[in-house]
User: Fold these one by one.
Assistant:
Number 1:
Amino acid sequence: MRRGPVRPATDAVAATSAPAAVAAPAGAPVDAPPVRQQLRTEFAFELPRGYVDDMGTVHREGVMRLATARDELVPLRDMRVQENPAYLSVVLLGRVITRLGTVAYMHDGVVENMFASDLAFLQDFYRQINAEGHTRAGVSCPHCEQPFEVELGGSRLGES
């Protein structure tokens, strides 16, 4: 059971309204269900440039879900990945991006037609939500050196 301060909703784990370590009040039934924590599994993002479909429509806003072990293992059997290991991230992102603008069917073919800057953004976003559990990064002000956090997900380059 996790103890400590409740993390903000941008973390992968967001607590429900009651803290997990609260004791049952006197006279409460012993078999009362425990307070549960909800796991955030989907994260919104906005591409720096945007995917341009065959009709010329630019799609920037999307959603990526947390990856499963299967998501990381299945692409290793793909012949394109076996021939070129750099293709792994394209296939993997095609599996975990659940929505991109109004694109009807999200797949690795969409990812391989993205601009390189968008691919780099998505690779970093994937690492942030799957390895660290959030999309924030600690930085410091270049002028006063005061530390603060910035949100990496959901904003375009140059926006704060």
Number 2:
Amino acid sequence: MGEQQHVKFPQEVIDEYAALGIDLVAMFSAGHLGTRMGVEIVEASAERVVGTMPVEGNTQPYGLLHGGASAVLAETLGSVGAMLHAGSSKIAVGVDLNCTHHRGARSGLVTGVATPLHRGRSTATYEIAISDEAGHRVCSARLTCLLRDAPTGTAAA
């Protein structure tokens, strides 16, 4: 669970990070929390990031997908988009996350799709739509990231 073997990045982005000695797929693997929750990034570019997460194991006491789990998926996908927009010389730091939960999900996978609302020099804002397997919107989220210079010698780490 949580392996990132199906991540898709534009080749020029892979090359940019590889030249810095950075394993892009490992860097965008959803981190420890995302791995524990089963988040998998299946497509990634600055224009669109898609990821999935199982409902099982990420529920609240009523057996519904936990709102915090949706927030983790949303922040993961939006952050990946912001990092890809910013490039290897910057890091993206989330400064605002807003989630509206529309309906519950009890089983299967949910899929999040992050698309940019704003991509500037110092901030990036992404809208993340999370849907169940039937295509019903479970959650609408918006994430704004501050784009900061990467510490010297640790680009995008």
